[in-house]
Amino acid sequence: MEYSMTTQFMMELIGTLVLVLFGDGVCACVTLNKSKGQNAGWIVITIAWGLAVCMGVLVAGPYTGAHLNPAVSIGLAVAGLFPWASVPAYCAAQMIGGFLGGLLVYLFYKNHYDAHEDEAAKLGTFCTAPAIRNTPMNLLSEIIATIMLVIIIISFGVKGNTYNPDTHAFGLAALGPIPVTLLIIALGMSLGGTTGYAMNPARDLSPRIAHAVCMKGSNDWGYSWVPVVGPIIGGVIAGFLGIYLRAL
């Protein structure tokens, strides 16, 4: 069924909101003082981020395919799997959804933000920051991680990973949001240690803006372009690689 662009816009917005609410929510849960989940660790964060993406996909998937990420929309368009004319609306919806998700995290954990004095740690519940600040390497980390994200998403649709009506064989991609959940968990555990694996401007810049609206303290604008430009470059590269995969 072909849904109107208004419906697609709203579902991308809501799906991204859900993604950020659950994803930044676990960061707040693990970080903030007096939270029952404080100090639960990186494993909890990576698993919860995978589940956050799963929840967003379940909401938006039937209507839009659940890109939930400008880098994914752009990468799929480069690969010829998504119309360029729809990219601006999808990206706008994703950015708005990410901002609203950040606002909800702030409202939900407001008492705990008030009880936490470390401004940098509070910012880290909204957006990413490098473990070692080295801008060229931080940018490269985001590019590589996003290439892996988008090219593997594209590979979900390659013959052998999808349902084959001739043989009635089901590939892994026929399991709905489960493969992308596993992908996000794997990316976080393997490639998340350098920059926090943003891979998504709507997951980073949008909640960063929400932090600027809701809270005092630095927003680290000097770094903020890295988790925007890096994922977009990575998405474009993955899109070109996707053209090759589709031609095989």
Structural key phrases:
0% strand, globular, 248 residues, Glycerol uptake facilitator protein, mainly alpha
Structural notes for this entry:
The protein is an all-alpha fold. The chain has a single domain, classed as Glycerol uptake facilitator protein (Up-down Bundle). Helix content is 67%, strand content 0%. The chain is built from 11 helices and no strands. Helix 2 (42-64) packs antiparallel against helix 8 (178-191) and helix 4 packs across helix 9 (201-214). The mean pLDDT is 93.
What is this entry, summarized?
This protein has helices spanning 5-31, 42-64, 70-78, 87-108, 110-114, 119-124, 135-155, 178-191, 201-214, 221-224, 226-247. The protein contains 11 helices and no strands.
